[in-house]
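Allow me, if you will, to draw on your knowledge of protein folds for a short while. I have a record of one protein: its chain in single-letter code and its fold written as discrete structure tokens. Kindly check, if you would, that the fold set down in the tokens agrees with what the sequence suggests. Thank you for your consideration; the sequence and its tokens are set out here:
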Amino acid sequence: MLNDKVIAIIGTGNMGDALVSGLIVSGSSKPRNIICSDVRKDKLNEIKSRYKVRTTANNLKAVSEADIVIYAVKPQLMASVLIETGPKLDMSKLVISIAAGVPLAAMESCVEKNMRLIRVMPNIAAAVKEAATAIAAGEHATKEDVELAMEIFNSIGKSIFLEENYLMDAITGLSGSGPAYIFLIVDALADAGVKMGLSRQESLFLAAQTVLGAAKLLIETQEHPGQLKDKVTSPGGTAIAGLATLESGGLRTTLINAVEAATNRSKELGESMTQNFCEVNNRS
């Protein structure tokens, strides 16, 4: 379904690069059907050399030739890029945004026309094709549009579809910001290993591999984390002693509060971004 579509990726930073790699390696798209645009000529040359895709510094040209347009620019640049490319956008194209904090309504207000819009929130693990991605659809997006978006972002990890757009802030607080929480936990576990006599290299490897293995076990068995936790703990054993310490330190509550704080901050930034879109639109 995706193989015959021409895809334009506007902005080829880390996420844009990851998308190109995922689409080609997975076989979801052919290099000749991918157009990458960016203001940096050196980046375009690198992308073209590595993946054999088409490149251009002209956003309008990329959009005009595409069936699917993915905006992978920084959120603060999104309004100006949308206004620039708006003349070439219409209902014949699927428009996907990965700009964090930019609501679909703000995007439509910029171009002042109806669009088949999809909003996507991947995370940094896209770099190793293990992104956790949430996808939400605009009013005019079709079921096929959602399926196309799922196919694109499944090439860099795993994705879910959200019926409710407003939950994208919660996604940002959980999986969007989540890798940072895990990095902190792994760093702390590695420090603990060093304190107990292990080398830094050994501790960091064991901590990271433990997180990876635990996550894979959860996903593949589909068991509740509480059930798996019970399998590790034995009466009077080591794991229950460690868990008791974590509970007394408030780890569970702290993580819940962290996701809530990040979600609320995402809402604040979204409101600010909408205001910024209005100002940019008025100036244009």
In short: DSSP finds twelve helices and eight strands in the chain. The mean pLDDT is 93. Strands lie at 7-10, 34-37, 54-56, 68-71, 94-97, 116-121, 131-137, 157-162.
